Task: structure prediction
Amino acid sequence: MLITGIKSRPVYDRLQPLPGGRRHIVAGQGSGGRAMLRLLSELAGLDRPITLLYSQESFSGQDFLAQLRQEHPGLPLQVFQSHQALIDALKTLLVDARMGTRLYLAGSESFLGTAMQVATQFDLNRDEVLREHSGTLVRRVWCVHCDTYTENVTQRVYDCPGCGLTLVVRDHYSRRLAAFQAVKADAEVPGELPPAEELDT
Result:
């Protein structure tokens, strides 16, 4: 019998203007561009600085870069080929963050998790950050045996690219790691693997 643990997938928000914002940073990835466009229309008319960061990396294949440029040509927009490059730029931006900074995140679960790690590193609290999930719920997974992160996992059982062990993905999401945990699939009975199945995505 497969015991996958406590279900702890995060509960996400709907992007909307946060009160008290003196500076708005809107960061999205792939299909998160749709939520960014909606938010930007709601922020229109505010006399506050808005910075846009967008990664074209997308598991779903959706790209909203052209619409962002067309509908908001006056806003500073930084474009990245990967969400990791966007995360690195976000770190640089938040070094100079002051009271009144509001952060809006939209994209895959993997993107939201890693971006929230950065926000937490710079002490942005729950009233200063909103996260909207977009696209599929593929998982970012952390191997408890070798500390390897694997992106876009869709199967309950998979082989770790770090240590080569066959792992089973548990339903426990760690906010600290921004990932689901995976453990050796046949730890209890060597050679006995749980059934292969698609994750709840």
Confidence is low (pLDDT under 50) at residues 1-6. Helices lie at 33-43, 65-71, 83-95, 109-121.
